[in-house]
Structure formats: structure tokens, C-alpha cells
Specification:
Layout (H helix, E strand, L loop, with lengths): L3 H15 L25 E3 L6 E3 H5 L3
Antiparallel strand pairs: 1-2
């Protein structure tokens, strides 16, 4: 009655209906620690358009 292709498609559809939509798993990765006095990388970012370059260290200097 069903061809092999139809059976495969039907079984994969039923299998996907039984699997949970969200796969929540616990991650225990090492935290990245930032200390007072650490330097900020001097990278220019674009704000709104490529013509508006922003340097984060210059922007945050003195704060």
C-alpha cells in the first residue's frame, strides 16, 4: 500500500512530532572574568552607517 519512500517520510514525520520543541540542556562553561583596570580592545565599530566610526576606548575614556 505504501511505498518505501512514503513509509520513510511518514515515520520521520511521526518521529518529529514526538520530539520536544525545545532542547534545554545545562552548560557549565568557564566564566570570562573581567577585572577593574583591564584594557578594552581598540576596535572601531560602525554606528548607524559605515561613515560613523566609534572607538570604544576613546568613548569610555575617563569614566
Amino acid at each position: 500500500m505504501f511505498t518505501a519512500r512514503a513509509r520513510t517520510a511518514l515515520s520521520s514525520t511521526l518521529r518529529s512530532a514526538r520530539t520536544p520543541l525545545v532542547n534545554c540542556s545545562f552548560h557549565a562553561s568557564a566564566p570570562i572574568m573581567v577585572k577593574v583596570g583591564d584594557s578594552i580592545p581598540d576596535i572601531e565599530l560602525m554606528e548607524d552607517s559605515p561613515g560613523n566610526k566609534v572607538s570604544i576606548p576613546k568613548l569610555l575614556k575617563g569614566k
